[in-house]
């Protein structure tokens, strides 16, 4: 509904979270699906800055500007849909890198993010895949492979486009 798409609602929601934080009921507060404009608006008006921003992030959506904003304001930039909702595991570049480093395509996609200091939260309903997706800290992607993956950036969104929210 339109009423949720206005800045006033964001400000009111954030003030409520701040209040709960002050009361000690919330240890950390953050936002999701904020654009650079939403982040600047929040940082300028908040009493307590957000601890985290959770957004869609993968090689086809590198979020360069948003990552800079988070770095500037010391907000943890956190990835969702790192596997492109599962669709990126069949990308030809991802498959080539996967072959080079003898890791699964999902591990390549997740390692690409964590190697840049970005925490990930992949979803799987399969216990073997969950274990496989967690094995990210015993290998490194070469600079060449990192660059090849980052070169896939094309602003592609598997989920939705938060810039539509005014
Ligand atoms: N803040 C937000 O607005 C927002 C929006 C979207 C998502 N999220 C969060 O982010 C999490 C992950 O995002 P997501 O579910 O959109 O996408 P994702 O993690 O990129 O992809 C999940 C899909 O990948 C498949 N998959 C997982 N591991 C795999 C592997 N090793 N090999 C092949 N396929 C694999 C899964 O299938 P199987 O289950 O069959 O393994 C599932 O279909 C969500 O659970 C949610 O917590 C947050």
Describe the structure.
This protein is 43% helix and 7% strand. It is mainly alpha-helical. The chain has a single domain, classed as Alpha-Beta Barrel (TIM Barrel). Strands 1-2-3 form a three-stranded parallel β-sheet, covered by helices on one side. The protein is elongated and about 50 Å long. The structure holds NADP nicotinamide-adenine-dinucleotide phosphate. NADP nicotinamide-adenine-dinucleotide phosphate binds next to α6. One of its GO terms (molecular function) is oxidoreductase activity. It comes from Notothenia coriiceps. This is Prostaglandin F synthase-like.
Quickly describe the structure.
With 166 residues, the protein is mostly helical. Helices cover 43% and strands 7% of the residues. A three-stranded parallel beta sheet has the order 1-2-3, with helices on one face.
Descriptive labels:
166 residues, TIM Barrel, 3-stranded parallel sheet, 7 helices, 43% helix, binds NADP nicotinamide-adenine-dinucleotide phosphate
Return the average pLDDT rounded to an integer.
Answer: 96
| Uncertain ranges | none
Number of strands: 3
List the domain count as a whole number: 1
Task: Find the CATH topology.
Answer: TIM Barrel
Given the C-alpha coordinates, what overall shape results? elongated
Rg over C-alpha atoms, rounded to the nearest angstrom: 17 Å
Describe the protein's topology.
Elements: H1 7-22, E1 31-32, H2 36-45, E2 52-56, H3 64-72, E3 76-80, H4 92-101, H5 105-114, H6 127-134, H7 143-150
Parallel strand pairs: 1-2, 2-3
Bound molecules: NADP nicotinamide-adenine-dinucleotide phosphate (NAP).
